[in-house]
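Example record for the data management plan.
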Amino acid sequence: MNKGNWITALTETERKGMPAVLVTILQVVGSSPRDGGTKMVITDCEAFDTIGGGHLEWQVVEQARQMLLAKTSEQQIVEYNLAADLGQCCGGAVRVLFEPLRVDVPLLSVFGAGHVAQALMPLLEPLPLAIRWLDGRTDQLYQNTSTRAELVLTDDPVNELILTATRHWVLVLTHNHQLDYQLVEQALKQGNVEYLGVIGSQTKARRFRQRLEHRGYSQQDIKRMICPVGVQQIPGKKPYEVAISIVAQLLQLLNGEIPMESEYARSETAVSRSAKTTHSKQWKEDKIWMTGHDNQ
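Corresponding structural encoding:
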Protein backbone atom coordinates (compact mmCIF):
# COMPACT_ATOMS: atom_id res chain seq x y z
CA MET A 1 0.00 0.00 0.00
CA ASN A 2 1.38 3.37 -1.00
CA LYS A 3 2.06 5.88 1.77
CA GLY A 4 1.57 9.63 2.05
CA ASN A 5 1.92 12.03 -0.85
CA TRP A 6 4.83 12.56 -3.17
CA ILE A 7 5.64 16.10 -1.93
CA THR A 8 6.07 14.92 1.66
CA ALA A 9 8.07 11.94 0.41
CA LEU A 10 10.50 14.17 -1.47
CA THR A 11 11.19 16.15 1.69
CA GLU A 12 11.60 12.99 3.75
CA THR A 13 13.97 11.25 1.35
CA GLU A 14 16.11 14.39 1.10
CA ARG A 15 16.23 14.71 4.90
CA LYS A 16 17.34 11.10 5.30
CA GLY A 17 19.72 11.16 2.33
CA MET A 18 17.74 8.31 0.79
CA PRO A 19 18.01 7.58 -2.97
CA ALA A 20 14.64 7.69 -4.72
CA VAL A 21 13.00 8.06 -8.13
CA LEU A 22 10.39 10.71 -8.90
CA VAL A 23 7.89 9.35 -11.45
CA THR A 24 5.72 11.68 -13.54
CA ILE A 25 3.07 10.89 -16.15
CA LEU A 26 4.14 13.18 -18.99
CA GLN A 27 1.45 12.46 -21.56
CA VAL A 28 -1.77 10.48 -21.81
CA VAL A 29 -3.38 9.27 -25.06
CA GLY A 30 -6.88 7.86 -24.71
CA SER A 31 -8.06 6.53 -21.37
CA SER A 32 -5.76 6.01 -18.41
CA PRO A 33 -6.13 5.69 -14.62
CA ARG A 34 -4.61 9.14 -13.93
CA ASP A 35 -4.00 12.36 -15.86
CA GLY A 36 -0.76 13.88 -17.09
CA GLY A 37 1.30 15.52 -14.34
CA THR A 38 0.46 12.84 -11.77
CA LYS A 39 3.51 11.92 -9.68
CA MET A 40 4.76 9.38 -7.20
CA VAL A 41 8.04 8.76 -5.36
CA ILE A 42 9.64 5.32 -5.21
CA THR A 43 12.48 4.13 -2.97
CA ASP A 44 14.07 0.70 -2.77
CA CYS A 45 11.45 -0.48 -0.29
CA GLU A 46 8.55 1.99 -0.31
CA ALA A 47 6.23 3.82 -2.70
CA PHE A 48 4.55 7.14 -1.99
CA ASP A 49 1.35 8.35 -3.70
CA THR A 50 0.02 6.65 -6.83
CA ILE A 51 -0.22 7.01 -10.60
CA GLY A 52 -3.35 4.88 -10.72
CA GLY A 53 -2.46 1.43 -9.48
CA GLY A 54 -2.86 -1.74 -11.51
CA HIS A 55 -0.30 -3.33 -13.78
CA LEU A 56 0.97 0.06 -14.98
CA GLU A 57 2.00 1.13 -11.50
CA TRP A 58 3.53 -2.28 -10.78
CA GLN A 59 5.68 -2.00 -13.93
CA VAL A 60 6.66 1.58 -13.09
CA VAL A 61 7.71 0.63 -9.55
CA GLU A 62 9.79 -2.26 -10.88
CA GLN A 63 11.47 0.02 -13.45
CA ALA A 64 12.27 2.62 -10.79
CA ARG A 65 13.79 0.02 -8.46
CA GLN A 66 15.92 -1.39 -11.25
CA MET A 67 17.27 2.13 -11.76
CA LEU A 68 18.00 2.45 -8.04
CA LEU A 69 19.75 -0.91 -8.02
CA ALA A 70 21.87 0.09 -11.03
CA LYS A 71 22.56 3.52 -9.43
CA THR A 72 21.41 5.18 -12.65
CA SER A 73 21.65 8.97 -12.60
CA GLU A 74 20.16 9.73 -16.02
CA GLN A 75 16.48 10.44 -16.57
CA GLN A 76 14.45 8.00 -18.63
CA ILE A 77 11.16 8.26 -20.54
CA VAL A 78 9.21 5.03 -21.06
CA GLU A 79 6.03 4.60 -23.11
CA TYR A 80 3.38 2.09 -21.99
CA ASN A 81 0.46 0.84 -24.08
CA LEU A 82 -2.09 -0.01 -21.44
CA ALA A 83 -3.94 -2.55 -23.57
CA ALA A 84 -1.26 -4.22 -25.70
CA ASP A 85 1.58 -4.15 -23.16
CA LEU A 86 -0.17 -4.29 -19.81
CA GLY A 87 -3.58 -5.80 -20.50
CA GLN A 88 -5.48 -3.00 -18.79
CA CYS A 89 -9.04 -2.46 -20.04
CA CYS A 90 -8.83 1.36 -20.24
CA GLY A 91 -6.86 0.91 -23.47
CA GLY A 92 -4.93 4.18 -23.56
CA ALA A 93 -1.21 4.91 -23.65
CA VAL A 94 1.05 6.91 -21.34
CA ARG A 95 4.56 8.34 -21.39
CA VAL A 96 6.29 8.21 -18.01
CA LEU A 97 9.32 10.21 -16.88
CA PHE A 98 11.70 8.61 -14.36
CA GLU A 99 13.95 11.09 -12.48
CA PRO A 100 16.55 9.54 -10.15
CA LEU A 101 17.00 11.61 -7.00
CA ARG A 102 20.25 10.14 -5.80
CA VAL A 103 21.18 12.16 -2.74
CA ASP A 104 24.92 11.73 -2.23
CA VAL A 105 25.22 13.48 1.12
CA PRO A 106 26.81 12.21 4.31
CA LEU A 107 24.64 10.97 7.15
CA LEU A 108 25.53 12.89 10.32
CA SER A 109 24.65 11.13 13.57
CA VAL A 110 24.72 13.47 16.56
CA PHE A 111 24.82 11.65 19.90
CA GLY A 112 23.70 13.75 22.84
CA ALA A 113 21.06 16.45 23.28
CA GLY A 114 22.67 18.70 25.85
CA HIS A 115 23.59 22.37 25.69
CA VAL A 116 26.11 22.13 22.86
CA ALA A 117 23.85 19.95 20.70
CA GLN A 118 20.91 22.29 21.29
CA ALA A 119 23.04 25.21 20.10
CA LEU A 120 24.37 23.16 17.18
CA MET A 121 21.12 21.96 15.61
CA PRO A 122 19.88 25.30 14.21
CA LEU A 123 23.32 25.88 12.66
CA LEU A 124 23.15 22.53 10.84
CA GLU A 125 19.85 23.36 9.09
CA PRO A 126 21.30 24.73 5.80
CA LEU A 127 24.12 22.19 5.47
CA PRO A 128 23.82 19.44 2.82
CA LEU A 129 23.66 16.64 5.38
CA ALA A 130 21.14 14.00 6.39
CA ILE A 131 20.94 14.30 10.18
CA ARG A 132 20.02 11.88 12.99
CA TRP A 133 19.87 13.19 16.55
CA LEU A 134 20.04 10.57 19.27
CA ASP A 135 19.59 10.66 23.04
CA GLY A 136 17.90 8.66 25.79
CA ARG A 137 16.30 11.67 27.49
CA THR A 138 12.87 12.58 26.15
CA ASP A 139 12.78 16.09 27.62
CA GLN A 140 16.19 16.94 26.13
CA LEU A 141 15.65 15.44 22.69
CA TYR A 142 12.17 16.80 22.01
CA GLN A 143 12.57 20.34 23.35
CA ASN A 144 13.75 21.52 19.91
CA THR A 145 10.80 20.51 17.73
CA SER A 146 11.73 22.74 14.78
CA THR A 147 14.80 20.74 13.73
CA ARG A 148 14.73 18.81 10.46
CA ALA A 149 16.85 16.06 12.04
CA GLU A 150 15.41 12.59 12.52
CA LEU A 151 14.93 12.29 16.28
CA VAL A 152 15.92 8.91 17.74
CA LEU A 153 15.00 8.25 21.36
CA THR A 154 17.12 5.29 22.43
CA ASP A 155 18.48 3.54 25.49
CA ASP A 156 21.12 1.81 23.36
CA PRO A 157 22.93 4.51 21.34
CA VAL A 158 25.95 2.29 20.69
CA ASN A 159 23.79 -0.18 18.79
CA GLU A 160 22.18 2.71 16.87
CA LEU A 161 25.64 3.58 15.57
CA ILE A 162 25.72 0.39 13.52
CA LEU A 163 24.37 1.61 10.17
CA THR A 164 24.81 0.73 6.53
CA ALA A 165 25.05 4.32 5.31
CA THR A 166 27.88 4.62 2.79
CA ARG A 167 29.11 7.94 4.19
CA HIS A 168 28.65 8.24 7.92
CA TRP A 169 29.81 11.19 10.00
CA VAL A 170 29.57 10.96 13.80
CA LEU A 171 29.51 13.62 16.51
CA VAL A 172 29.78 12.40 20.10
CA LEU A 173 28.38 15.10 22.40
CA THR A 174 26.86 13.13 25.28
CA HIS A 175 26.93 13.94 29.00
CA ASN A 176 28.68 10.69 29.96
CA HIS A 177 32.39 9.93 29.51
CA GLN A 178 31.93 6.17 29.50
CA LEU A 179 29.21 6.34 26.84
CA ASP A 180 31.41 8.66 24.79
CA TYR A 181 34.21 6.13 24.89
CA GLN A 182 31.91 3.24 23.93
CA LEU A 183 30.65 5.24 20.95
CA VAL A 184 34.22 6.02 19.90
CA GLU A 185 35.20 2.36 20.00
CA GLN A 186 32.15 1.32 17.99
CA ALA A 187 32.76 4.04 15.40
CA LEU A 188 36.39 2.99 14.96
CA LYS A 189 35.24 -0.58 14.27
CA GLN A 190 33.17 0.55 11.31
CA GLY A 191 34.70 1.21 7.95
CA ASN A 192 32.02 3.65 6.82
CA VAL A 193 32.65 6.33 9.48
CA GLU A 194 34.50 9.05 7.58
CA TYR A 195 34.52 11.56 10.42
CA LEU A 196 34.47 11.09 14.20
CA GLY A 197 34.29 14.23 16.32
CA VAL A 198 34.24 13.98 20.11
CA ILE A 199 33.56 16.82 22.54
CA GLY A 200 35.93 17.15 25.46
CA SER A 201 38.98 18.67 27.02
CA GLN A 202 42.58 17.98 26.12
CA THR A 203 42.80 15.74 29.19
CA LYS A 204 39.81 13.72 28.02
CA ALA A 205 41.33 13.42 24.55
CA ARG A 206 44.66 12.21 25.93
CA ARG A 207 43.04 9.61 28.18
CA PHE A 208 40.80 8.33 25.39
CA ARG A 209 43.87 7.89 23.19
CA GLN A 210 45.72 6.09 25.98
CA ARG A 211 42.78 3.78 26.55
CA LEU A 212 42.45 3.01 22.84
CA GLU A 213 46.15 2.27 22.64
CA HIS A 214 45.85 -0.01 25.67
CA ARG A 215 43.01 -1.85 23.87
CA GLY A 216 45.26 -2.48 20.88
CA TYR A 217 44.01 0.12 18.42
CA SER A 218 46.59 1.29 15.90
CA GLN A 219 47.81 4.88 15.82
CA GLN A 220 46.17 5.25 12.42
CA ASP A 221 42.79 4.33 13.92
CA ILE A 222 43.30 6.46 17.02
CA LYS A 223 44.03 9.48 14.83
CA ARG A 224 40.59 9.12 13.26
CA MET A 225 39.14 10.45 16.53
CA ILE A 226 39.03 14.26 16.46
CA CYS A 227 39.01 15.38 20.08
CA PRO A 228 38.61 18.17 21.05
CA VAL A 229 36.15 18.50 18.18
CA GLY A 230 35.87 21.68 16.13
CA VAL A 231 38.20 24.30 14.73
CA GLN A 232 40.44 25.19 17.64
CA GLN A 233 41.20 28.70 16.31
CA ILE A 234 37.63 29.64 17.23
CA PRO A 235 37.93 30.45 20.94
CA GLY A 236 35.40 30.10 23.74
CA LYS A 237 33.76 27.36 25.78
CA LYS A 238 30.15 28.53 25.76
CA PRO A 239 27.76 26.14 23.99
CA TYR A 240 27.17 28.42 21.00
CA GLU A 241 30.92 29.02 20.62
CA VAL A 242 31.67 25.30 20.61
CA ALA A 243 28.78 24.73 18.19
CA ILE A 244 30.16 27.35 15.79
CA SER A 245 33.61 25.71 15.87
CA ILE A 246 32.02 22.33 15.07
CA VAL A 247 30.06 23.76 12.12
CA ALA A 248 33.25 25.38 10.83
CA GLN A 249 34.94 21.97 10.87
CA LEU A 250 31.98 20.35 9.10
CA LEU A 251 32.21 23.03 6.42
CA GLN A 252 35.88 22.17 5.97
CA LEU A 253 34.89 18.53 5.52
CA LEU A 254 32.17 19.40 3.02
CA ASN A 255 34.76 21.30 1.02
CA GLY A 256 37.16 18.39 0.86
CA GLU A 257 39.42 19.02 3.84
CA ILE A 258 39.40 15.76 5.83
CA PRO A 259 41.25 16.06 9.15
CA MET A 260 42.43 12.74 10.54
CA GLU A 261 43.11 13.99 14.05
CA SER A 262 42.53 17.07 16.16
CA GLU A 263 44.86 20.02 16.03
CA TYR A 264 45.67 19.35 19.67
CA ALA A 265 46.66 15.76 18.94
CA ARG A 266 48.91 16.88 16.09
CA SER A 267 50.73 19.22 18.44
CA GLU A 268 51.47 16.48 20.94
CA THR A 269 54.68 14.50 20.75
CA ALA A 270 54.51 10.71 20.55
CA VAL A 271 54.41 8.87 23.87
CA SER A 272 57.94 7.84 24.79
CA ARG A 273 58.86 4.33 25.88
CA SER A 274 59.58 5.53 29.40
CA ALA A 275 56.17 7.18 29.63
CA LYS A 276 54.50 3.94 28.57
CA THR A 277 55.62 2.30 31.78
CA THR A 278 53.22 4.55 33.70
CA HIS A 279 50.19 3.42 31.70
CA SER A 280 49.07 0.78 34.20
CA LYS A 281 48.81 3.39 36.95
CA GLN A 282 47.03 5.81 34.63
CA TRP A 283 44.70 3.01 33.60
CA LYS A 284 43.52 2.50 37.19
CA GLU A 285 42.90 6.24 37.50
CA ASP A 286 40.99 6.25 34.24
CA LYS A 287 38.60 3.54 35.44
CA ILE A 288 37.50 5.98 38.13
CA TRP A 289 37.59 9.03 35.86
CA MET A 290 35.55 7.35 33.09
CA THR A 291 32.51 7.12 35.38
CA GLY A 292 32.36 10.90 35.60
CA HIS A 293 30.04 13.18 33.67
CA ASP A 294 30.33 16.34 31.59
CA ASN A 295 27.70 19.04 31.66
CA GLN A 296 27.01 18.92 27.92
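Summary line stored alongside the record: Residues 213 and 219 are 7 Å apart (CA to CA).
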